[in-house]
Amino acid sequence: MRDGGRLAAAIAVLGDIAARHRPAHLALKAWGDGARYAGAKDRAFVSGLVLDGLRRRRSLAWMMGAESDRACVLAVARFVWAWPAERVRAAASDADHGPGPLTDDEEQRLLAPQSLASAPAPVRGDYSDWLEPLMIRAFGEDRAEEAGALAARAPVDLRVNTLKADKARVLKALSPFSAQSLEATATAIRIAAGQADQRAPFAEGVPGFEKGWFEVQDLGSQVAAAAAGPIANLQVLDFCAGGGGKTLTLAAAMENTGQLYAFDADARRLTDTVRRAQRAGVRNLQVRSPIDPKALDGLEGRMDLVFVDAPCTGSGTWRRRPDAKWRLTAGQLDRRMAEQDAVLDAASLHVRPGGRLIYVTCSLFCEENEDRVAAFLARNPRFTVSPAPKPVVGRLTEGGFLRLTPRTGGTDGFFVAILAAAK
Question: Would the pTM count as exceeding 0.85?
Answer without folding.
Answer: yes
